[in-house]
Amino acid sequence: METPNVPEPDSQASTTESTSDVTEPLDRYECSPCGYVYEPLKGDSVGGILARTPFKDLPVTWRCPVCGARKNVFANIGPAGNDAGFKANYGYGFGVNTMTSSQKSLLIFGGLALAGIVMLSFYGLN
Ligand SMILES: [Zn+2]
């Protein structure tokens, strides 16, 4: 008995090591002393910072427009846009619950009457 010597491909060669230099330029930074949030999408009109300026690209002379704190007291609080997806699904729950009791009884009575008619028709057939 000889097992065929099938060469197996060494799967260790395909380690996807992607050293992607992902810069996250749109992270927001919060001023620790006063709570001011620098939003890169808006920039800082007070300090003459254009919109879409990453925090790290702010000049070292940049100060908090509210309290004048330096950049090193700002804390990264992540990118904006976390408040999306809060649109509640209004419009659900409209169905049987919106029917009045008379409509419900009419529906039930109609169903019973229909069932009775069907039973009578079967009875008549016999
Ligand atoms: Zn501040």
The SS-based structural class is alpha+beta
Biggest sheet statistics: 3 strands, antiparallel
For the secondary structure, the number of strands is 3
Q: Quote the beta fraction.
A: 5-15%
Bound molecule types: zinc ion
State the end-to-end distance: 77 Å
Share of residues in helices? 10-25%
What is Rg?
35 Å
Overall morphology: elongated
Helix and strand succession?
EEEH
Our count of helices gives 1
| Major sheet strand order | 2-1-3
Overall pLDDT metric: 78
The unreliable regions are 13-18, 83-92
Describe it:
This protein has 126 residues and is of the alpha+beta class. It has a domain at 101-125. Helices cover 20% and strands 10% of the residues. It contains one helix and three strands; from the N terminus they run E-E-E-H. A three-stranded antiparallel β-sheet has the order 2-1-3, with no helix packed on it. The longest helix has 25 residues, at 101-125. The structure holds zinc ion (ZN). Its cofactor is Fe(3+). Belongs to the rubredoxin family. InterPro entries: Rubredoxin-like_dom (IPR024934), Rubredoxin_dom (IPR024935), Rubredoxin_ET (IPR050526), Rubredoxin_Fe_BS (IPR018527). The chain crosses the membrane at residues 106-125. Residues 26-77 form the Rubredoxin-like domain.
